[in-house]
Protein: Pentatricopeptide repeat-containing protein
Amino acid sequence: MVCRFSTRLLNICISSFCKVQQLEKAEAVVIDGKRLGYLPDVVTYNTLIAAYCRFVGIDAAYSVLHRMREAGISPDVITYNSLIAGATRYWLLSRCLDLFEEMLQAGILPNVWSYNTLMHCFFKSGRPEEANRIFQDIILNNLSPIQSTFNIMINGLCKAGYTDNALMLFRNLHRHGFLPQIVTYNIVINGLCRLGRLGEARRILKELKESGHVPNVITYTTVMKCCFRSGKFKQGLEIFSEMKNKGYTFDAFAYCTVSSALIKRGMMKEANDCMEEMIRTGIGFDLVSYNTLINLYCKEGKLETALQLLDEIEKVGIEIDEYTHTILVDGLCKSGDIEGAQRHLKHMNMMGFQSNLVAYNCLIQGLCKVGQMDYATKVFEMMELKDSFTYSSMVHNLCKERRFHSASQIMLSCIRSGKKILTSAQRAVLAGLRSSGFRREAKKLRSEIRMAMILNS
DNA sequence: TTAGGGTTAG
Structure:
């Protein structure tokens, strides 16, 4: 009895350290506990696995699983749920599915959280139809959905571009016997803010307050980000200041948001001050904080310092992600080291990063900037996945080189594929054709654009 | 134990 009570205390202590990202201290408690005769149990290992997934990486979490098995403790449904959530965090869909299968093979019955996590994983991997199938299974097969089931669904729908369906589900929550939680409100506000639907977001924020909830740190960060995104820079900074007064700047989120907004506006000194303030406050650095700092160094032209920081991240044991790589590819391009950027992109591909679209867009920009337009065209043609950025960059840069016919072809293929192109890019092509004596072609292009838009609507 | 906020390209 005494031992069980102490192990429970031990686990509470470990959990507290894990929550504030102090994994070394959590491990030290495990060691001390063992020395005193209190052996770690399944809760101890589950807590550590969840923390390693969150703050370090999936491989580190697997080594805890290995230690757990060596200690003769069998993983349970919570262990698997944590690992599946960890794999989701790192975009490893096939690993999620393997883990789910492994759990079934081990005779462990999945609970509603296992399904929730799998649903989240499908959404994150860009497979909303499969996520919806799981959601329907949960509802129709009476697998006792919980509030989180709906939160994950609403969030997934928003992120997958089905914001209006998400809003419908949000409005119909009561039919399933639930009321929106603060989390639900935050999800919907964020979904609307991302689309620039500020008026509706404001209305939901009003509803949140009227329903007796108090906006929390996440509501604040969401609204602040929304201000920066919609050009209301001063208002964003005012929210940051209010957050400080309320004690809502206890983690890295607000600092990273503000620093990045300052970097985008070229306010490097202020961005530096912001990150330094975060360091002074004693907030631990996670991957996003490191990425923000690397971006700051890159934009200041301090490539060496940025690369030194990479070593530091490696020493801490954090696995870098596609953001880190993309920031470096962009930094290398902007410093004129195109070969270095290409090498890095190749390395990124070899590492199996599939979300490399932004990195390729950076390379195209970099090549255009150093006048290698033909090479940029080759890269453009080779790219399997392209977005509005890719097309707009190509069109703008071709126009700069007065290659208006090539620009008009690329612009048309963009519009025909249903993607938007910057209005400024459209104007540049049309004006370029006209000014270089191709008035008839410009007129024809205008009607082709109109036709493509009608066919896509 | 799990869900919501922060980091990249014009």
